[in-house]
Amino acid sequence: TVDDVRALVDGGEAAPTAADTTPPVDEGAPLSGVVRRMADHLQRSWREIPHFCEIVEVDMSAAIARRAAGGPGQPTLNDRLVHAAVRAAVAVPELNATLVDDVLTRHGDVNISVAVATERGLLTPVVRAAQDATLDELSERLRDIATRARSGKLALDEMSGGTLTVSNLGMFGVDTGTPVVNHPQVALLFAGAVRERPVVVDGAVVARPTIMLTLACDHRVVDGVMAARFLAAVRDELGT
Prior knowledge:
This protein is an alpha+beta fold and 240 residues long. Helices cover 34% and strands 25% of the residues. It contains six helices and eleven strands. It has helices at residues 2-9, 33-48, 61-70, 77-91, 135-150, 224-239, and strands at residues 51-59, 97-100, 103-106, 112-114, 116-118, 121-123, 126-127, 164-168, 187-191, 195-201, 204-218. The strands form three sheets. Strands 1, 4, 7, 8, 9, 10 and 11 form a seven-stranded mixed beta sheet that branches. The chain has a two-stranded antiparallel ribbon with strand order 2-3. A hairpin with a 2-residue loop joins strand 2 (97-100) and strand 3. Helix 4 (77-91) crosses helix 5 (135-150) and helix 4 (77-91) packs across helix 6. The radius of gyration is 24 Å and the shape is globular.
């Protein structure tokens, strides 16, 4: 700076710069606890599962209108998304499954794993038998399990036994992505942000609130048609 130059001309010392300061010391620590378990789990998922993804854009006008008509305290758009995924899993049971040691199990109950961001990392608590819950009931259970996940009050068995996962990063401004299937499940539904986007309606380009949904699947047991049927079911649930 000008002051540094003047100080040197006058025989003084220049003000310390970032280069003059002692650099921070790098500190290493082994992974442990929840982070370690997550790392092992995702490494196994990526190593063992041949992934493929399908993406669909869904008009959220109807879902937004229903929520607005209900007033305060109504199920959120995320609640409606999870509910739609549960209904789709009932309609396309091939994706409500787990694969362990070459044994494929199609489950009668939809035990939905829902990704929750916490200070300890991303957790996926499970809402069991979600197919038996109404939208309002599911909304209440999701709110409860997310609150307890963030406060560290989940029981161990509430973190296991999921048959399908929903992950929503729309609140962080993410539009889409390529998610990793939650082993031993065979599918994961990833949701991005709801945004006003141009779409063609009756030959005219109009702005509509849409969401990008990405379905990641285990290609060993799920094919493209199964995935497409599942996404179509989710789209239909959100649009009605």
